[in-house]
TrEMBL record:
InterPro entries: ATG33 (IPR051668)
Keyword Transport annotated: no
Key word Ribosomal protein present: no
Family (UniProt): Belongs to the ATG33 family.
Main localization category: membrane
Originating species: Zasmidium cellare (Wine cellar mold)
Membrane topology according to the record: Multi-pass membrane protein
Alphabetical UniProt keywords: Membrane, Transmembrane, Transmembrane helix
Membrane-traversing stretches: 56-76, 82-102, 135-154
Protein name: DUF1772-domain-containing protein
Subcellular compartments: Membrane
Domain of life: Eukaryota
Length: 157
């Protein structure tokens, strides 16, 4: 059983590190480069595709990380059951749940994209909002990753 616990801790912490990296790359590289596209229509399409794919990967990494960390806590013997696993799992879940804040505003903009009339200012605002969300997610996931690394290091696993 100790090897299963160590594997769950490793998978959870690694997934949280990948989540941090994905969010950081989106906020500093991908989303700012969308604003350099020559017109609003390709920028709107690219933003919607990037957001859709990023949401898929972010939710997957968040779910894998949280599930692995909670499973590690559950499988741990009572004498070595550390609460940092629960806290880190909650931070991982919260990081993935940040998309719920953006879902309302994203649904409002779908009608604009379907009609074909794209306003450059609206596309820029959506890109800036998504970039802000990814900055926040980077901080939250980075905090969780730090907690996970320190916890695993403290466990000696």
């Amino acid at each position: 059983m100790p090897s299963a616990v160590a594997l769950c801790k490793f998978v959870g912490t690694t997934s949280l590190g990948l989540l941090t990296g994905v969010s950081y790359t989106l906020s500093t590289q991908s989303l700012p480069s969308l604003l350099t596209l020559p017109s609003a229509k390709p920028a709107a399409y690219t933003l919607s595709q990037t957001t859709r794919l990023a949401t898929l990967h972010v939710r997957t990494l968040s779910a894998v990380s949280a599930a692995s960390l909670f499973l590690a806590f559950y499988l741990s013997p009572p004498r070595i059951r550390h609460p940092y696993l629960v806290w880190t799992g909650l931070v991982a879940a919260a990081s993935g749940a940040l998309n719920l804040a953006m879902d309302k505003s994203a649904k409002q903009h779908v009608a604009i994209d379907e009609v074909g009339d794209v306003n450059g200012e609206q596309v820029e605002k959506r890109a800036r909002d998504q970039q802000y969300l990814e900055f926040v997610r980077t901080g939250v996931a980075g905090l969780g990753f730090t907690m996970g690394v320190i916890g695993v290091w403290g466990d000696g696993a």
